[in-house]
Amino acid sequence: IEQKSAPPPRRDGRSARGAVAAPMNDAGNSRPMRHPNLMALRPSQWSKNGIVLAAFFFAFWDTERARPLTLADLVPAVAAALLFCLASSAIYVMNDILDAEFDRLHPVKRNRPIAAGQIPVPTAWAMAAGLLAGAVGGAWLLAPRFALVVGAYVLVQVAYTLALKRVALVDVLVIAGGFVLRAIAGAVVLDVEISP
């Protein structure tokens, strides 16, 4: 007996039998999607902010310091890394708002929450503003000099999002500069001397 194959899904995402097809995630496959608000924050990119902790680990083993670091100093270092997660997520949300029209034409990026219409643009702007306020405000409470580094990072990333990412070579330098600012931030929050 010849078996009939399942009918292909319709353009509206439903199969001919009425079932809703599984949506694709940002990676382009059909694994279950997480909450759209969480996806918009790009948590998979937060590991980059681990560089903020580099100053602690280098200074922790420095026996020539007048005041050796202790494990208690890891607390402000981790707080600084988390605040950078807020700042970087704010930039990702802003980038997705500005690029939404182009992302909808991309086979993978069209599944991002803002491009897919899962997060309204006004809500996305509110998210970005809240994340930035939390990042800069928290950074100021942690250490005013650290807040200046976070502010510099945000300004550079906004410039990158608006224009610099379309300039050859400059875009690479800005990305590299973002990592340098993260490392500087970790040193500033712990009052660790930065070696040239």
Question: What do these coordinates show?
Answer:
The chain is mainly alpha-helical and 196 residues long. It has helices at 36-40, 54-60, 74-98, 100-103, 121-142, 144-162, 170-189. The termini are far apart. Mean pLDDT is 82; it is low at 1-32.
Any key phrases for this structure?
single chain, mainly alpha, 7 helices
Distance between the termini: 77 Å
The main β sheet shows up as: none
User: Structural class of the helices, strands and pairings?
Assistant: mainly alpha
Strand content: under 5%
The helix content is: 40-55%
On the 0-100 scale, what is the average pLDDT? 82
Shape: elongated
Give the number of DSSP strands: 0
Helix-strand topology string:
HHHHHHH
SSE layout and pairing:
Blueprint lengths: L35 H5 L13 H7 L13 H25 L1 H4 L17 H22 L1 H19 L7 H20 L7
Helix pairs in contact: 3-5, 3-6, 3-7, 5-6, 6-7
